[in-house]
Amino acid sequence: MVLLSGGFVTTQANAQASDPFLGQLAYVGFGFAPRDWADCNGQLLSISQHTALFALLGTMYGGDGRTTFALPDMRGRVPIHVGQGTGLPSFTQGQGGGDDTATLNINQIPPHAHSASTSVTMNLKARAHSGVGGTAAPEGAVLANSGREDIYSSSAPDVDMAVGAVTGTADAATTVNPTGGGQPFSIMQPYLVVRCIIALQGVFPSRN
Predict the structure, then answer these.
(1) Are the CB atoms for 23 and 203 separated by under 8 Å?
(2) Which residues pair with 199 in a beta bridge?
(3) For the chain, which domains are there?
(4) Which of 37, 110, 149, 170 is the S-S candidate for 33 at Cβ 3.0 to 4.6 Å?
(5) Cβ neighbours of residue 168 closer than 8 Å, sequence gap 6 or more
(6) What pLDDT, on the 0 to 100 scale, is given for residue 13?
């Protein structure tokens, strides 16, 4: 929700009733971080200048813990609550994750099959001998003209048969080439950009 009416805080007395908690995050519709607030851009702050805020945040969002600590970086990010929801992984405070784009690999696409078949028809050219047959065995011989029992000849063939006189079929292996470019695609949810700020001054929260 968004506040439609209000007033400027001009004195400390007026501010007491509406002081935020130190380290509190807020989303605002205007275009700047007010006094005593800072944009959540992951910037480093000096521990010596913000000791109370460091006591709350520590190095949860970055920094060396000796001289600096970092504010949350909410640029291009949405917040989620700490803990583990039903059927979800566990999330710890300060943890970041997720991606703006994704690229599918073969293990992430639905099961499917590609089929391909190739039929090869060949025209064979054979040669036959024009002489009489002299052998009954076909090994190393060719067909010859003969009225006798021996129809094969071991002599070199010297007659060309016409193309198409002998035909047949043969199976051939087929390889289906991969397709697709493998380019990443956006997985961003619909969004509207507002400003996330954090309180640098305010009431130190009590656990009790």
Answers:
(1) no
(2) 37
(3) 19-75+193-208 (3.90.1340), 119-171 (no CATH)
(4) 37
(5) 121, 122, 124
(6) 46
